[in-house]
Amino acid sequence: PAQGAQTPDAIGFLAYADHPTPLGPLSILPATAATRDALEVAIDGLSAVGQTSIGNALAQAQLFLAAYYDADGSHPDEELIGLVTDGENTVPNSPEQYLEGLDPAFAEPDWGATVLARKARKSAGLRLPRISTIAIGQDAEVGSLQNVSDAAGGTTFFVPGPTGSTTLQAATLDLAEGFFSGVESGSDLQRVTEGRVKGMRPSEMQTFRVEPGATELRALAVSADQPLGRLRLERPNGTIVAPTASEPESVAFRLRQPMPGVWRFVGPDLASTQHDSVLVTAAVRSRESVLTRFG
Questions:
Q1: pLDDT tens digit sequence for 160-203
Q2: Which of left, alpha, beta for 79 (phi over 0: left; psi -120 to 50: alpha)?
Q3: Is residue 20 exposed (0-12), middle (13-18) or buried (19+ Cβ within 10 Å)?
Q4: How far apart are the first and last CA of the chain?
Q5: Region 219-243: what's the mean pLDDT?
Q6: Gap between the Cα atoms of 84 and 65, Å rounded
Q7: Quick check: 278 and 223 in contact, CB under 8 A?
């Protein structure tokens, strides 16, 4: 998740068990490699303990956004909460209470008088983020997560998780696809290509068409076990675009006013593996309908 952050996004992380716990304040990523690395270390150090406070976590994420944007009136193009869970809510408040009305008896200490419940924020004329959810494994309460996403204009993505029939590599790509799907739904982006390949040989490189009228292009390539740091995008005129954010196993691109025509991923000739090892996806924001081409 930290690797997928694309400048100039503001991004914050919350862990939640008995209570939601910020891993740090909202930060502009990738402001520095040190900031991104610190978040990754914090995420890697998480472990499953205690209960599952999904409703309070949603409210705490809303507090992040409210504290950052409500007071001074400056707003980003879009606000998105992405919720990831492998279980069901076990603590008052529930996800539905975040939508309808939170019980103050179970409020977190730092909420104060901030308007957090979605219904109350709408009545007060405050901004409402889109919410997309990722349910991991059979224990996740998909129905409740779907209700939240439907009410908040997002999507719900189900990831089976690593099992006897699903590899860790496949689960990693599932999770990455879920995050990108959430960003798409929260940003009015239209997907123009998506695929999983066993390598990045020239014959396997994804191509996609950007139609006239597109105002933004976002593309992402992620792998669980392949080095992708040298992957690039090639414009229709043959010029090369460097990634906005790059890590050894992921690259992200974000361009304003992308050139219309056929784009493609280019880079090192990575040998094919026995399993689908690379997820490649791209989406555009456009004032017009988009025709897709999966290459």
A1: 766 554 566 777 777 777 777 777 766 778 888 888 777 666 66
A2: beta
A3: buried
A4: 26
A5: 88
A6: 18
A7: yes
